[in-house]
Amino acid sequence: MWFICAILTTLIWGLAELFYKKGAKPDEKYSHLKICVCVGIVMTIHAVYVLLTEDFNYNPMNIIQYLPVSLLYIISMACSYFGMRFLEESISDPIENTSGAIAALLCFLILKQTIGKLALVGIILIVIGVVLLSVFEAKDENGRKKKFGKKLAIIAFIMPFLYATLDATGSFLDAYYLELETSPLIGITEENIELVANTSYELTFGIVALIISIFMLFKKEKMNLVHQKDKWIAAICETAGQFTYVYAMSGVAIIAAPMISCVCVVSVILSRIFLKEKLTKKQYAAIATVIAGILVLSFTDI
After folding, report:
1. Can you tell me the distance from the alpha carbon of 224 to that of 188, in angstroms, rounded to the nearest whole number?
2. How many CA atoms lie within 13 A of 115 on its CB side?
3. pTM
4. Which of 123, 77, 71 is nearest to 98 (CA)?
5. Domain that residue 218 falls in
6. What is the number of domains present in the chain?
């Protein structure tokens, strides 16, 4: 089950990345914050629906208990949305998705989760493919510096690396929080632990969306969310992917994390089709390497 959820998460979040990119407009100053608001609203709606339809005795204190994980994910996503305004998707996304391999390494070193030789080969293939994909797409920075200024171009390029670090730390903590024996979450059972974690995260994102909305009101910035179709579609995909993500991470996190990092493969292909970003033969080779890594990881669960 966890393996299917990991694949679904990868596909859904890959689609989300496409619409994030379409909705992240360089000339819209608070575009990244507006995306956060859209995601927060959709996640809150889903959390309320779950609370009304699922009987799992949710304790609101879990919002506080799960806060370290929630904030790591939310801040990392805000960094990603900012970087998308100025970077090509095929550059930023492969860099961001090295987070899965970082999370797997943390699980191995700190949580002492075991990893077989075949799984290690799969992870290495994924890392090689993701890194090569980033290297092959690295273009001359001069164009961005001239267009946006040197300072903004540098900050934008740093954002994917911040995302990778923060998201990897969040994934690592998730491996701890989603283990029944170690989790600090309140009132959890083997059946409801994923729902409790996901609901806590979604409600936290809703609170963050409210804070951002107040900030935007203070800044007298018009939200115009009714006309933000791409942002809403991205938010819906993000929420759907998050739902399957917690089930993937509650399985074999050390393998699920690098698998989900392959979302960059989906987003690069979609960017080529819909955003007309070009792919080279080297890129196709890198993507093939990542897919090979996924296949190797799938054999480890047979």
Report:
1. 40
2. 25
3. 0.82
4. 123
5. 2-299
6. 1
